[in-house]
Every structure is written in C-alpha cells, then in structure tokens.
C-alpha cells in the first residue's frame, strides 16, 4: 500500500558505488547487502516516487585500476561497464523478489539479459512505476558511472540525484581520517570543483551544474535514510547553486 506522506521529489536518480554491494567482503556481491539496499529502494518506491538507478562496477572490476596495471584503457573501461551490468542484474533480482517491476537498460546492447537504452521507452517505464536501472555507463570509455548517472538523470528529467555513500554528506576532508572534519549542509557546484571535495568526478559535477540538477549526498548505511530525506528529514549535504 502506498504511503501518502508528501515527498520532496517525484522522480529521482539513485547513484551507488559497486563497493556498496560488497558488504564487509573485499570483492564481489554480498547478497544480504544487495537485499538491504533493495528494501531501501522499495520504501521510497512505496511513496509513489519514480526511481532511476545507476550502480558502479568497482566491486568486480575498475577500469582505471586495470589501465594502471598496464591494460589498454579502452578495454579496461569496457570491462568495467560489463561489471555494472552484473550489479544491475543482481539488484533487479533483489527488487523483483520484493514485488517491484524493474528494468535493466544497458548502453551496450545485450538483448538476452537487458533492454537497449531508448529514452522514450525508459521514460514510459518510469511512468508505469517501474524502477529503471541504467547499466554499462554511457557506453563510452573514459566516462565514469557518476557521469552516466548525471547524463541519464538529465535525460529522464529527474529532479535530483541521490548519491549514496558511506558517510552522511560532504565533508571538507575525510571524516574517517580526520576527527575535526566539518560536514557541509549545502555546497555549490563550483565549490565542489574548486576544493576537490570528491563528491563525483568533475565532468559529472559540471553536467549537473549546467542542467541545474541538485545532488543529495547521504549515507546508504543509515537505515531508512533514503526515504527519510524524501520526507524532508535526515542528515545530508545538498550540492546545488
């Protein structure tokens, strides 16, 4: 049954890293963690919010690390894109176990396992309250999944990007290493770029700025955090003008 509590946004992009799916493991997928995140997504879906998702692939393969170890960069990036498809299929499975209709939409065609990216079709899925998981990045090497999330959020007319991390917002320095780190409630796109605040890569921040797309940085480890922010509660940092 849908909760009728008013929400701040009607259509959002949730961007999470591949590492978020590892749990306490050093590599790969941790099914209980995938299921926990799926429950968080369901709690927001139950509010009537239309949800897009982009999941990184760093828990399986990271293109930059591959190229640093001598692999040709383009090949390494394509391998990273394939890793994001694996994560997207895992999340689709977890969401559909909860009764949420989900579509995996890949920038690289692989018809046996997911749909190709067609913007109008994806918008129609959202209108039918299906969760759309965009996989394989932008389909191009040299672009991160942060940039892919910002691009798809712009194309889908999302009202905000929710960046799920291990900390509850953007800090002036790493809060894990520095006890005196200060959290921002609000920070501008230009400040993020000038101070190298490590929210998303520079091209993603610039694309969000050019399309006036706010980025909400919050802790994915906080139970109910995603839903809470949509109700106007919780701790987070808003990146906008």
Write the layout of secondary structure elements.
Elements: E1 11-16, H1 31-45, E2 50-55, H2 63-68, H3 73-97, E3 102-106, E4 115-116, H4 119-127, E5 131-135, H5 145-155, E6 160-165, E7 170-171, E8 183-184, E9 186-187, H6 189-194, H7 202-210, E10 215-219, H8 225-230, E11 237-239
Parallel strand pairs: 1-2, 1-6, 2-5, 3-4, 3-5, 6-10, 9-11
Antiparallel strand pairs: 7-8, 10-11
Helix pairs in contact: 1-3, 5-7
Structural class: alpha/beta
Order of helices and strands: EHEHHEEHEHEEEEHHEHE
Q: Which range does the strand content fall in? A: 15-25%
- State Rg: 17 Å
Strands of the largest sheet, in order across it? 4-3-5-2-1-6-10-11-9
Low-confidence stretches: none
Number of strands: 11
* N-end to C-end Cα span: 36 Å
**Helical segment tally?**
8
Kindly state the percentage of residues in helix: 25-40%
Using the alpha-carbon principal axes, give the shape: globular
Main sheet: strands, sense, barrel: 9 strands, mixed
Mean pLDDT: 94
What features would you highlight for this structure?
9-stranded mixed beta sheet; 8 helices; alpha/beta; 241 residues; two-stranded antiparallel sheet
Can you walk me through this structure?
The chain has 241 residues and is of the alpha/beta class. The protein is 36% helix and 18% strand. The chain contains eight helices and eleven strands. α1 crosses α3 and α5 runs parallel beside α7 (202-210). It is globular and about 50 Å long. The termini are far apart.
């Amino acid at each position: 049954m849908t909760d009728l509590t008013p929400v701040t946004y009607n259509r959002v992009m949730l961007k999470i890293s591949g590492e978020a799916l590892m749990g306490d493991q050093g590599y790969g997928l941790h099914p209980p963690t995938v299921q926990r995140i799926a429950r968080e997504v369901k709690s927001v879906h139950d509010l009537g919010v239309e949800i897009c998702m982009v999941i990184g692939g760093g828990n399986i393969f990271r293109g930059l690390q591959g190229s640093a170890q001598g692999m040709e960069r383009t090949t390494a990036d394509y391998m990273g894109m394939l890793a994001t498809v694996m994560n997207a299929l895992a999340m689709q499975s977890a969401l559909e176990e909860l009764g949420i209709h989900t579509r995996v939409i890949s920038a690289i065609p692989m018809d046996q396992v997911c749909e190709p990216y067609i913007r109008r079709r994806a918008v129609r899925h959202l209108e039918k309250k299906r969760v759309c998981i965009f996989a394989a990045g932008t389909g191009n090497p040299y672009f991160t999944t942060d940039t892919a999330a910002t691009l798809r959020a712009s194309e889908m007319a999302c009202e905000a990007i929710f960046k799920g991390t291990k900390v509850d917002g953007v800090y002036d320095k790493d809060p894990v290493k520095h006890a005196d780190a200060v959290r921002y409630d609000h920070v501008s796109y230009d400040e993020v770029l000038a101070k190298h605040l490590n929210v998303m890569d520079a091209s993603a921040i610039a694309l969000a700025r050019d399309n006036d797309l706010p980025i909400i940085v919050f802790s994915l480890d906080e139970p109910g955090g995603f839903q809470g922010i949509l109700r106007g509660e919780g701790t987070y940092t808003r990146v906008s003008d």
